[in-house]
Amino acid sequence: MNHDPAGLVDAEGGRLLAALRHLLAEKDIATPGEIAERIAATERASPRLGAAMVAQAWCDPAFRALMLADGTAAAESLGIAMRGLPPLGVLENTPALHHLVVCTLCSCYPRAVLGYPPFWFKSAAYRARAVRDPLGLLAEFGTQLPAGQRVRVVDSTADYRWMVLPLRPAGTQGWSAERLAALLDAGDLVGTTVPTARERV
Amino acid sequence: MSGRFQPGAAVRVRDAWPERQGPVHLRTPHYLRGRPGRVLRSLGAFPNPEDLAFGRPAAAVPLYHVAFDPGTLWPDAARDGDLVVEVFEHWLEPRA
Amino acid sequence: MDQDHPRQHHDIGGVPAFMCREVDTEPHALSDFDREVDALRQILGQKRVMSVDELRRCIEAIPEADYHRLSYYERWIRAIADHLLRQGTVTPDELRAALEQGG
């Protein structure tokens, strides 16, 4: 490789990061302050945001319609920062259809509304198996779909980021959006698990 | 921007393997090449990632959600379900 | 691994070598290293120094054995370094000197 004849990129990750931090700060491309600020901004995104969207959709048919038509607009209407980020697509589960999201090529994940991707989502086992053996994979997450509900695997390969709008659990009539949101975690929002009327957070 | 395929269109993913020729960046998984599918819906148009990856000017290409029967992809896959993938138009051809 | 298949090594949907692996569903906390690499990648994207597809392409260029040995963010920092060198934003001499100084 002509651009790196000495194989400098083979250096240990921590050393590479330290060296690049130094060089990019010197070149005023990425300063330590900017990096700290970015980390703080990234940590503000978490599955709580996606959970709030889903809970709102369960309570408000107009919001649900907006969310299914334009996930980005729905997220922005709740004050979630989406500017400059990939468009958010929302996959609606029904009694007949369950969605499972994977990225077999890398690890595309709806970070704006779920935060950092979980370890398992990035793993080779998850990426390889979700498309070919979704039911076996779901079983490992303790998820068994009811008879008559087919699974649709969505391989997130390109420009969208996909989240799942799960079915509202039975026995939650009249619950507030806040109470409903506490039933949801990241797995429910990419389809490895399904929410129940039991609190997750 | 609307592309050449409408929802419901029968398509086939091109049986092309550019990765055999040299360095490339592709967003069409290997397991779809040459396989039949059906267009679910248009997702708009996005700059071609195959050019973006190399810092080249990238034209916008229509992008579709295309549904596949897992049984046509893997002999051991359960047929009770499907697989939906974002595929760029230049990877699709019409299927009779 | 299925050597007769011309797929690229990151392109692992349905690939037999991984089909019998269990998924590690335990939570893994991110380290400071992970968070910093992630933030750096975002800044380089915002400043149009490196697009997502340029990152992906450089991750895909990591030799197969290294790809599977490195952690997720170790792949990223290696790909970022590779891209900055290819682009000329950082020269090999600069990077060598910075590595020798310990950052």
TrEMBL record, chain A:
Signal peptide residues on this chain, from the entry's feature table: none
Pfam families: NHase_alpha
Organism of origin: Lichenibacterium ramalinae
Listed GO MF terms: catalytic activity; transition metal ion binding
Keywords attached to this entry: Metal-binding
Start and end residues of each Nitrile hydratase alpha/Thiocyanate hydrolase gamma domain: 17-193
Transmembrane portions of the chain: none
Top-level taxon of origin: Bacteria
Entries under InterPro entries matching the protein: CN_Hdrase_a/SCN_Hdrase_g_sf, CN_Hdrtase_a/SCN_Hdrlase_g
Keyword Ribonucleoprotein: no
Full protein name: Nitrile hydratase
UniProtKB/TrEMBL annotation, chain B:
Gene3D superfamilies: 2.30.30.50
Domain Nitrile hydratase beta subunit span(s) in chain numbering: 4-94
InterPro entries membership: CN_hydtase_beta_dom_C, Elect_transpt_acc-like_dom_sf
Domain of life (superkingdom): Bacteria
A Pfam short name: NHase_beta_C
Protein name, per record: Nitrile hydratase subunit beta
Origin species: Lichenibacterium ramalinae
Lineage of source species: Bacteria, Pseudomonadati, Pseudomonadota, Alphaproteobacteria, Hyphomicrobiales
Automatic annotation (TrEMBL), chain C:
Pfam families reported in the protein's UniProt record: NHase_beta_N
Protein name: Nitrile hydratase subunit beta
Domain called Nitrile hydratase beta subunit-like N-terminal: residue spans: 9-99
InterPro entries per record: CN_hydtase_beta-like_N, CN_hydtase_beta_C, Elect_transpt_acc-like_dom_sf
